[in-house]
Design goal:
The protein has about 110 residues and is an alpha+beta fold. The chain has helices at about 15-20, 35-45, and strands at about 1-5, 10, 55-65, 65-75, 80-85, 90-95, 100-105.
Length: about 110
């Protein structure tokens, strides 16, 4: 349910979404929850600077002067080869539950 409130809006999901995801088996390999979170981010006007083409790989960005520090998280139990859309391009192979920290010249 979406309810507009002033200049904003409130979304209500009558189902305990995070609980549902938590009690599933190897949920990171097959769920589509990233679609819901991407929709909520778009509705809030948030535009991620970098996006992974694979929903099992999450990115977190921190600005550090002229560079961005990009944390790359493989949330799955599978090895993943991913081409990240970063300046200069980055192809990575991530082991299960692997984390990488990259520095990217952003500006």
């Amino acid at each position: 349910i979406r309810h507009r409130l002033g200049r904003g809006q409130v979304f209500f999901l009558a189902y305990p979404w995070e609980h549902y995801l938590a009690v599933q088996g190897p949920i990171n390999e097959c769920d589509e929850s990233h679609v819901l979170y991407a929709h909520l981010a778009t509705a809030a006007g948030l535009r991620p600077r970098y996006v992974s083409p694979d929903p099992r790989v999450q990115l977190r960005v921190v600005e550090d002067g002229p560079e961005d520090v990009v944390w790359v998280f493989n949330r799955s139990w599978s090895e993943i080869a991913v081409d990240l859309d970063l300046p200069g391009g980055r192809g990575l192979t991530l082991r299960p539950k692997d984390v990488r920290v990259l520095r990217v010249r952003a500006r």
